[in-house]
Here is the input.
Amino acid sequence: MSIEHGEDGLWPEAYDRIVLDRIDSTMAAAARLIPTLDRPTWIMARHQTAARGRQGRAWIAPAGNLSATLIFRPQASPAEAARRSFCAANALLESLAIYVDRDALALKWPNDVLLKGGKVAGILLESAGGGAFVDWLAIGIGVNLAHAPKLAEDHPFPPVSLRGQGGDAVRPEEFLNVLATNYATQEGKLERLGFDRIREDWLEHAARLGEKITARTGKEVVRGLFDTIDKDGNLVLITGTGPRTIPAAEVFF
Here is the structure.
């Protein structure tokens, strides 16, 4: 294993990169490697044997798709660290828009990117630390660049691939260069302008904003008008009984 410090000036200066051939998952590798890392580091795998998504679900990542995790020490509270999912979503949309019509892309709360209504990318956040600040934050990202995994035909958001929807062909390594640069831009915006700017950028591309959606929490099903996300990134729905703020849920259209 070797740590790379950029490629022909295309890589953001403050970030490192590790490319691995075959591992269990980039999230697991990031958690193992963080004690040895001095700077924010992207870990990319060409093949994963035990990739996972939200709530422990398996994540299918055929060769040719992107599987990567950014791990770093953000000097942030758990709530502040969690907002980085919106930085990642914005960076993903800007990166994908280089290879496909940006009007075909949308951001689905809390952490998916849609292409023509199908799921083209997902984000998973994990952190550690029991104090006021997290010890580290890992942002896992999977992008269906070349292949769309097969799921049940009645899946509400069937997986699609960038290439399958008419986008340009792009290698995972090349896409990671673009993504890392766009993510570094989002971090710069967050530092200079605060989460309000990140939130505004995310809302500009939010799927079904101003329309009726369904949010399924672990305890109830809430239906309402998708009004906004608040300063903490929570979903805000306008229901028959008034506004509802929802911190965690699965969203359906």
In short: The two ends are 43 Å apart (CA to CA). The mean pLDDT is 92. The first strand starts at residue 16 and ends at 23.
